[in-house]
Amino acid sequence: MTWNDKFSADASSIDASEIRELLKILSDPEILSFAGGIPDPALFPMDQVRAFRERMVDQPAQDRQLMQYSQTEGYDPLRSWVANTNSSEYTTVLKENVLITNGAQQSLTLLASALIDAGTPIAVANPTYLGALQVFGCRRPKYITIETDLNGLKVDAVEAAFKQGVKFLYTVPDFQNPGGMTIPLERREKIIALAHEYDVIIIEDTAYRALYYDTAPPPSLLEVEGEFLGQNKWNDKGLVVQLGTSSKTLMPALRVGWTIAPTGVLDKLILLKQANDLHTSTVNQTLTYELANEIIEPHLEELRTVYGERCKAMIDALRQYMPNSVTFTPVTGGMFVWLNLPEGMNARKLLEKSLAEEKIAFVPGAAFHANGGGENTLRLSFSTCSPDVIYDGMKRLADLIRREI
Ligand SMILES: Cc1ncc(COP(=O)(O)O)c(C=O)c1O
């Protein structure tokens, strides 16, 4: 008997993630890593966490409730906070439209099980968030990939995918992971109009939306759809389901994310979550609510200042050091810059040399492509390195690329 013979078809379809495998070698302190897409722990709001812990200890009765089971939908004050923060002129989001999840990753899992059967056609960008490909891939969909440029999804490619009858489009419209692109308003409007013309659900992932270092991104697809449909029609007619998370703005170990959806969808997701894990940690939801309520704006200002300097350093360094045959997204938000190496250069092989000769890590781009391709692309993250380290790392990487050319 081998265990492989026993696994379900869904489980057999899961491969080890190239990135998770790669991250294992990054514990070597000598490696300068631009690979991980993680927030800088030095920026976690630890003073507030300490104060929360002390308050808990001072109030034993309430403290115990925080350690109790709670409702699947999530902690009501947090649901209301999410609803209020995401309501707009045309769409009032109610707490009944919000499900708190174990990170945005669980939102993706629940949506995948609600919407995908083996062979279901779904549309994703080329490149797209690898964690979404992992979740969707478990259910063996048929991927239709949509080409992108520096402004994200190309509208004609979106229409071509919709014509093929996809059930949904998954997109990260703001400072995309991994590509860094932000979709401009005009394209967002066209995508929403097309979604309604072809009856395609849009899963909008806003993981990096609050992390802008120049101007705020255009209205979200949820907001654009609100205006498209008219005053408060979204709950009845909306096709946009929006995901959010506290991982990038507060701390990922909270594992607190959310799904905002018309109640017709949300009620199904609640049942799926109940079957999956009953509810998200009560104490973590309460802490997230207190942090969101008390410090989120000044905290975001701090993140924007610190990450903004790192982002600028990376773009400046790339402009200064990279050969002209290397192109990149001139990002002003999020955590990532996407590089296109000269045609024919393989980013995986470059990584091997980069680790051996320069001790610099990045993520080769091929894994972010659902149907293959992207061998000459790579992702760099600037979120955990100081500007000096970024200049030094980009110079060394550029020198290596020149040697390869
Ligand atoms: C685009 C995107 N969506 C979702 C997630 C998952 O985030 P969470 O920590 O909320 O599960 C990530 C994490 O890297 C991400 O980059």
Describe, in plain words, how this protein is organized in 3D.
The protein is of the alpha/beta class and 405 residues long. It folds into two domains: 3-45 and 297-404, Aspartate Aminotransferase, domain 1 (Alpha-Beta Complex); 69-294, 3-Layer(aba) Sandwich (Aspartate Aminotransferase, domain 2), CATH 3.40.640. Helices cover 46% and strands 14% of the residues. It is built from 16 helices and 14 strands. The strands form three sheets. Strands 2-9-8-7-6-3-4-5 form an eight-stranded mixed β-sheet, sandwiched between helices. Helix 10 (185-198) links the parallel strand 6 and strand 7. Helix 7 (103-115) crosses helix 13 (263-277). Pyridoxal-5'-phosphate binds at residues 37, 103-105, 129, 131, 172, 177, 205, 207, 245, 247, 252, 257.
- What is the highest CATH level, the class of the largest domain? Alpha Beta
Number of domains: 2
Number of helices: 16
Approximately how much helix is present in the residues?
40-55%
What's the CATH topology name of the largest domain?
A: Aspartate Aminotransferase, domain 2
SSE order in H/E notation?
Answer: HHHEHHHEHEHEEHEHEHHEEHHEEHEEEH
- Spatially, the strands of the biggest sheet line up as 2-9-8-7-6-3-4-5
Q: What is the typical, i.e. mean, pLDDT?
A: 95
CATH architecture of the largest domain: 3-Layer(aba) Sandwich
